[in-house]
Amino acid sequence: MKIYLVGGAVRDALLGLPVKDKDWVVVGATPQEMLDAGYQQVGRDFPVFLHPQTHEEYALARTERKSGSGYTGFTCYAAPDVTLEADLQRRDLTINALARDDDGQIIDPYHGRRDLEARLLRHVSPAFGEDPLRVLRVARFAARYAHLSFRIADETLALMREMTAAGELEHLTPERVWKETENALTTRNPQVYFQVLRDCGALRVLFPEIDALFGVPAPAKWHPEIDTGVHTLMTLSMAAMLSPQLDVRFATLCHDVGKGLTPKNLWPRHHGHGPAGVKLVEQLCQRLRVPNDLRGFS
Questions:
Q1: What 3-state DSSP class applies to 58?
Q2: Domain 132-197: which topology?
Q3: Residues 219-257 as b or e (16 or more Cβ within 10 Å = b)
Q4: Residues 6+ apart with CB under 8 A from 186
Q5: pLDDT score recorded for residue 208
Q6: pLDDT value for 43
Q7: At what angle are helices 133-144 and 154-165 packed, to 10 degrees?
Q8: Which CATH class, in words, describes the domain spanning 2-112?
């Protein structure tokens, strides 16, 4: 049995960032051996155990095979013969496919350290395209690390566009979409999340009310940026600098959605866009099952 620290803890340590949560992978063990060692099993779909003292998660090394649609359509195989490299290969990004052993040595079969240094978000393998949730995860990582000048690799963005065009995002549940969005809204640069979604076509699918604002002009006297979609993301960026509150940021995202309903012959003025936007915000919140406290504030 060999135990490795994996994923975000290794990534953030290499970036010099605080490590909040630790995840571990166990190679060469069976569920019974973990139970005999005092671990408590918590995973139903695949063997995940809690450490008896730290209560951190220890997962048996596993592989995944696509067996259905959406982000839940996978068959997992966990056994003592699954290697660390095979386990790391199923992960989304190379910077998340890193491991560290007991001696502090970094195991990096997919060149995650190179991409960390290059500030690149790059997918590990074509299997990335099998899980539509990863489109949102990449957008969230782009927002989370925007202050470190991370960008998405061209081939990864191209794959995200292919997944969106193929209708893969339609398999996502509202709860998962909102959870990723909520996490993105609490980052230092939440506007990057929505810009990435727009770049790959996902904004039109998941947030049509926001996507409709791009290309809609506003009076240059009040909005020098003119484009309402651009204005919305600029305002969200400013709100993030002024307040860490989720409700403030979400309300800022939604503040101009009514302008997307203005007939073109009335552009660039948008009289009554506030009341007009109420139904759109309610529609967005209901579709994504946004918590009630945020709905009222927005």
A1: strand
A2: Hydrophobic Seed Protein (1.10.110)
A3: eeeebeeebbbbbbbebbbebbeeeeebbbbbebbbbbb
A4: 244, 246, 249
A5: 97
A6: 73
A7: 140
A8: alpha beta
Name the stretches of the chain with pLDDT < 50: none
Domain boundaries, the chain: 2-112, 132-197, 207-298
CA distance 215 to 242: 27
Phi and psi for 217 in degrees, rounded to 5?
A: -80, 155
The Cα–Cα gap between 298 and 293 comes to 9
Strands 74-78 and 99-100: unpaired
Q: From CA 118, how far away is CA 86, in angstroms rounded?
A: 24
For residue 198, give both structure tokens: 């727009």
For residue 102, what are the contacts with CB-CB under 8 A and spacing of at least 6? 3
- pLDDT for residue 264: 73
Q: Do the Cβ atoms of 110 and 21 come closer than 8 Å?
A: no
- Among 31, 97, 37, residue whose Cα is nearest residue 60: 31
Instruction: Look at residue 272 in the predicted model and tell me its pLDDT.
Output: 53
User: What counts of helices (H) and strands (E) characterise the chain?
Assistant: 14, 11
pTM greater than 0.70: yes
